[in-house]
Design a protein that fits this description.
Length: about 160
């Protein structure tokens, strides 16, 4: 039985963005990579097996483009990429727009389903566009550390909003 090589997760240098973009395109994702994006790479033996980006769009922090190579799926690579991205947030709030069947996956990173009427307008438009294409997506948000702390102290004190 052959041993599977370990996967390493790291933040890409801007000079590696073209490599991430090429992997995305090979896996059928065409969301692109901008120079200001923080790009997380999952590598096994020098081979790129996963990518996710942390972006800032219209002043809103976003998780974008979570992709794992088809041959590397179901090996917890996505979970490790999600954990790396969440650790980079440093308590900042963050949105994502996943397929609805992935709510549980993003929930492991602290993301919760979020009402569209509380979303920035650009996200409401983006989701409407995806849905008009027949994609079953939802809006999720990872609350900031301050919001999570306020909710926890409210629950501990018995206060209800």
């Amino acid at each position: 039985m052959s041993r599977v090589r370990p996967v390493s997760i790291r933040v890409a240098d801007v000079t590696e963005h073209a490599r991430a973009r090429a992997a995305y395109e090979a896996w059928g994702y065409f969301g692109g990579v901008r120079p200001e994006d923080t790009v997380f790479l999952a590598e096994r033996g020098g081979e790129l097996v996963g990518v996710v980006r942390l972006t800032l769009e219209e002043g809103t922090r976003m998780l974008r483009g979570m992709q794992v190579a088809p041959a590397a799926q179901r090996q917890r690579i996505g979970s490790r990429l999600l954990a790396a991205l969440v650790s980079q947030l440093a308590g900042e709030a963050c949105f994502c727009v996943p397929y609805a069947h992935l709510v549980g996956f993003y929930g492991q990173g602290g993301f919760v389903e979020w009402p569209l009427d509380e979303a920035p307008a650009f996200l409401t438009r983006r989701i409407a566009g995806y849905r008009s294409e027949g994609l079953t997506v939802t809006l999720m948000r990872r609350p900031s550390a301050a919001e999570r702390g306020a909710r926890a102290s409210g629950a501990a004190g018995g206060a209800r909003a």
